[in-house]
Write a structure and sequence with these properties.
It is built from nine helices and seven strands; from the N terminus they run E-H-E-H-E-H-E-H-E-H-E-H-H-E-H-H. The chain has 267 residues and is of the alpha/beta class. The termini are far apart.
């Protein structure tokens, strides 16, 4: 679990101070909800970000001490979305950032409107880079951490989910480069899960298929990323099923993998 040894982020008992906060983007469900549940017992105050207030409130209500935490509403796809989020954090003492907000769309690139395609890039890649850059001085000062929720979709091209795969590839490469640059200064975790029951299929429209074999429980995925964080950060592929999928991605020639994924994902 995340730990801190800095005096300005802890109280006299050696635990996080009551004003020390962790921001979780996309906390309305899925991984964001689970991060809130697993980080709360560590004593941090949580700032739960989302754009759906009723669902965000459900996350808050599911916690043991909802009165200690706060909600932050901002649509990261709007022109002023990231600015609104950052303005709300101006007086916060941040020790952690979980870049979890993201979504994907399934279907032919040719037949899908450009606006949702660009929105995927904005939410999945642009927003975490912009938010992290703005919050980095505080996170470095407090010897904090960043968890970037990427995907194994970023390890290979995906026909009919081309923009999502491109965004996650960018997020993975940026996160790993950042981790290397800031080694010894800031703990960075790049989480790269495969299929999991987050509601992603329902939102993206992707059909159920053979990939369901690789589905891994959300609590296991989040716990694996927090264990990686405790070990100083790193690239985290959680669970044996996702590790198997990752290995298959690496050993399968790209030409063959593309044909297989086209057959699996074609509308």
């Amino acid at each position: 679990m995340p730990e801190s040894s800095e005096k300005n982020t802890e109280n006299s008992s050696g635990k996080p101070g009551k004003h020390t906060a962790v921001l979780i983007t996309g906390a309305s469900g899925g991984f964001g909800l689970e991060y809130a549940k697993q980080i709360e017992p560590l004593g941090y105050r949580l700032i739960l970000h989302g754009r759906d207030k009723p669902r965000l409130q459900m996350t808050l209500d599911s916690l043991k001490h909802p009165e200690r935490h706060s909600l932050l509403l901002a649509d990261l796809n709007r022109k002023d979305g990231v600015a609104t989020l950052l303005e709300s954090l101006r007086n916060e003492t941040l020790v952690g950032l979980v870049n979890n907000a993201g979504f994907g769309i399934w279907g032919s690139f040719e037949k899908t409107g450009i606006v949702p395609q660009i929105d995927v890039i904005k939410t999945d890649l642009k927003a975490p880079i912009e938010i992290t850059h703005a919050l980095l001085p505080a996170l470095l000062k407090n010897r904090g951490f960043v968890i970037n929720v990427s995907s194994l979709a970023g390890e290979a091209p995906l026909p009919y989910m081309s923009t999502y795969a491109a965004a996650k590839a960018g997020l993975t490469f940026w996160s790993e480069a950042l981790r290397t640059e800031l080694a010894g200064k800031l703990r960075v975790v790049t989480l790269a899960p495969g299929p999991s029951p987050t509601g992603f299929r329902e939102v993206s429209g992707m059909p159920v298929g053979p990939g369901s074999f690789f589905r891994t429980p959300i609590p296991m995925i989040v716990a694996a990323s927090l264990e990686t964080l405790n070990n100083g950060g790193g690239y985290c592929v959680p669970g044996w099923r996702h590790k198997l999928l990752f290995t298959m991605q690496k050993i399968t020639p790209r030409a063959i993998a593309l044909k297989l994924m086209k057959r699996h994902l074609q509308p």
